[in-house]
Known about the structure:
single chain; four-stranded antiparallel beta sheet; 2 helices; 30 strands; globular; transmembrane; membrane; Quinoprotein_ADH-like_sf; transmembrane helix
Amino acid sequence: MNELLRDTLAEHADSAEPPALDLDGIVAAGDRRISRRRAIAVLGGAVVTLAAIAGGVTVARSIDRRPAPATPAPFAERRATYAIGSQIHYGKDVISVAPYRVSAFVQTDAGFVFLDDENDIYVAGTAGVRRIAPGRGTRRLTADSHGSLVGWVEDYTDRSESVVYDVAADRELVRTSIGNKRGPLLDAVMGPQLVAIDGDTAYFGTLTGIYRWDLKAGTAKLVADTLPNGVRGVSSGQYLYQRPLSHATSGTSLAVGPAPSDSGGRTFPGRQGYLSPTADYLVAGPADNQRAQPAAAVLALYKVKTGAKLQLRHPDHSRLIFGQWLDDSTFSAVGIRAGRNAPVDLLTCSAINLTCQVSAAAFSTFTFDPTPPRDLPFAVPLGAPITQYFG
Length: 391
């Protein structure tokens, strides 16, 4: 490039003005870009949130760390209940277990557990009826006042085994022969039984005494050297037991206390008794003169802490058969009317207002089968048939 041309270009460059900037246009374009980015971010967040919700996960502020509400147990509510034939009458609901017949049953939060005529053990619940064990001589079932646990005893040639079963989980928690080994010369006065389930503890009435079994630890402790029925029940850690412990079959009174003994506890008249879930009340009475078990008798209601007898009113029924505690102060019972082969009513009785109301009128009769095992035509959720042992 020659010198004249270079000077000419330099002169034009110095004299040229910078191009005008469209500031409004630049700002508007920038705003549009920001808006698009925000929209994409919001849309992307919405997609993530929807995907997370669809997958059962929440994000950001949607996280709820509280546990999901527990599904109520289907049979947690205790109602005035009885069974006749193949039907369990659960309040106003009727549960059919056909083709099986209920000879004895108990209620758990997860379903009713019953024995049929062959003493096989079944569960009736929301999923239908299923067998959970062959009875193997079982004539008694035991359940807590709440929860899903049930227990029984199975007999074998050389031993008996105590079983605790979780109905909700459909599995055995305990199977043990502790205290129930049979020697060649053993002639037991009374067979073993599962005395009670109280929360996380089971109580086994064995041939060598009463054992307390910790269901969490899987350990056992002998708590009373007595017959298998020396302790009649346990509620909230309080024992209901026959006194004297050493002669439980001929005792004349019951006692309630934190440990079974012949000296402690508060004493009540009677041979049969039923503690409320909180051990605040006791329903107790003598043995039945018709030699039935569980007995129809003049049952009395007591306040455990004071020992006071409460005047429970059921004027149309001379005797009662205890059914079950419905809550801490209410229980069901079968009311026996006067007369031979009399009708029976299902009652709901309150320890608060001391009255009994009819829940099911004349639902059956107090008539024992003339042939062994001489059971009544109905059952209540005590876990054992109502049987007349002698004519």
